[in-house]
Amino acid sequence: MKYIHVYNVTPSLPPRLQSLNEMAYNLWFAWNYEAVNLFQRLDSNLWEETRHNPVLLLGRLSQDRINELLEDESFLNHTDRVYANFQRYISDKRPYQFKHEKNGNIKIAYFSAEYGLADALPVYSGGLGILSGDHLKSSSDLKIPIVAVGLLYQEGYFRQYLNPAGWQQERYPENDLYNMPVILEKDKDGKPLTIEVPMGDHTVKVRIWRVQVGRTPLIMLDTNTAENRFEDRDITSQLYGGDNLTRLKQEIVLGVGGIKALEALNFKPNVFHMNEGHSAFACIERIKVLMEDYDLSFDEAKEAAIVNNIFTTHTPVPAGHDTFDRGLIEQYFESYLSSAGISIDQFWELGTINPENLNEPFGMTILALQTTGYSNGVSKLHKKVSQKLWRSVWPTVPVNDIPIDGITNGIHIPSWISNDMASLYDRYLGSDWTQDPDNVKIWQKAENIPDVELWGAHERRRRRLVAFARKCLREQLINRGAPTAEVDMANEMLNPDALTIGFARRFAPYKRGDMIFSDLERLARLLNNPDRPVQLIFAGKAHPKHTDGKKLIQRIIHYINQPAFRTKIVFIEDYDINVARYLLQGADLWLNNPRRPQEACGTSGMKASANGVLNMSILDGWWDEGYSIDRGWAIGNGEEVGKEYTDDQYQDEVEAQALYSLLEKDIIPLFYERGLDNVPRKWVAKIKTALKTLCAEFNSHRMLEDYFNKAYYPAYSKWSLISENNMKGAKILNSWKQGMIREWDKISINRIETEDQDTLVVGSSFHVKVYINLNKIEPKDVSIDLYYGPLDSKANFLSREVVTLTQYKAGKNGDYLYTGKIPCAKTGKFGFQVRILPKHELLNDPYSMGLILWG
Length: 855
Fold this sequence. Notes:
By secondary structure, this protein is an alpha/beta fold.
């Protein structure tokens, strides 16, 4: 055996340049162009070689270069200016401003399996990670007190390359954690701070690292330490790598270990937000901790934890949700649970629809839905999809009432805007667009940007995109061993002045990455028109285990290699944040054509729009909310299989034809309709309309404010009530629930009386009387509602409104008369029902108890 003494070497900078080191370890630099430009000035070639990693860059600077910098007054002044801005930002301790009375004590823990924050921290795979990263950046800007929790992957997500046959191959280079903007947490003795996480029949040591995201800390967990077994060191090796057992272990570390890490670092959150189901085991660890700390029963602790747990689901298809069989759950949780007096059956019930069926897999999303007080999808359409997908969790509740809300995702605009566009915005919108991007009035000023300047800035970005694509293609060809002549041809690929369409995303079949190739002859005519040329740039990865996605990429490469397309279409390998920026900032048109409604949100289109790139998309995800004819294009009219379409193939054929028609008849002519100054003014008008109407809505500041107002603050308020006096509220709520469950079947709706409804006209209303027997239940413990709305031909509600009835008088033995009136605001066929739900000030969700009575 080799005994190796391990030591770490850090950059040595003179005191005059120490501020560079401080800024390198805070990802604030990633969304501040002045900071990025400062690090580029150190050594532009090294900046690219280190993949925009300032920590590694500083470590590789030569002493000669450092001496040169110390003599460069311009550089030193630049450093002082950026550092002053950094200090001003970090030291601003004024509390965030929202319209709530008690928001000063709120502390939020945010869990996610991946974070896409910067090129220098490659621990993300795609949209979920980018969204999580933007969430933290906006929390920092808004000063919302969030501490985030994630996993620090030794290899991260794979690096992609294509072999000569066009087949995706994967590389897993190790992340050099000591040359990345992450800091190992130490204990009071200066040793690495670790926690122990139960892993079946043993425990795993987990190291704790910190990434500083502006004002927001991100705690990252890592099992690759010599104290662990060999197989346990690999738990945090790869993002979404390994088998189902590896996934289970990762999710135990993230959820259970995440709660333990927060405690070890003395963070005391009072709101817990789980971004996707990967971290849902945090719910059971919270229940366990509450039982131990407050001497609560399992049911009491569960009620307390539910109150301030929040869950966001991102996946609109069942196959995308993690599940585990009973054997694995028993193996990895039975001992852990029994130590707190929790049975495996109690736990099993939280993650299943039918707990008696031991063959039903344990679902992480079901666990999250059943242990959180607020759940949401990530767009208005995704809310509806999620309500249908998870209706079995609430079998007695109408689909439209299933308690899954919708908060549409947004983007952190300063992170994604090109330097050229940022300069324009500074001049014509004012500097507040970075700090107040959800202010409608700011974006209305986009109308003031001269068409010539706006188009000039956009054309510069397109030309940079073409230059970048050529560079990437050249490197790709060299790596594949292509002949020199073919490598040299890369310098002539694409036309810097042609209409450029970008398509970049994960290659899953439902995203239909090859739909534009449905009619090759028609596509060839479009791309090779000498007067109005068009070109395509693709990028994106398929999951290593998804053969269908890899075949999709290979088909596209096959099409690209045909003579008609060889200089008109490029596939850029290894899609990441850097590639995304070039594409989103330089394309003219952003293409997205998933099968509706399988795109939960799709934030890449938002990033494109904020850069003056127009969208052409299926009406799915965010574009279902964002589209209008004056700011982009819609493929189809929101049709779906099972409704307007009979099958996927027919849908693909129809929508492919619609895509071609839009290009031929509208998009290409509009792009090439130029004035004497060569500016496509109608195209620019669409850009301005998109900037004025989309940016203020589809950004992560608005998203965070929605979360705060709809989820964080209500959860904090309920927690304040339920936790006071040693969790007295949890005990009261649990006791009340048990009583309601015992007595619910004994209540009845005895009679409903209404006025004559034959003479109803718009603007009138009619009264309803409801006679109810509540038996031993008190009137304050129920909500008696009139549930009304327009009906279809089969007497199904098309939409619904709710009027809560008031108690008019009490009779004997639990008899009560309730009255109310229904407004008649529109014409048509309407109906109503009487509904009774449980009601308590500490109850987050009246549907969670499964108690509902319809008249």
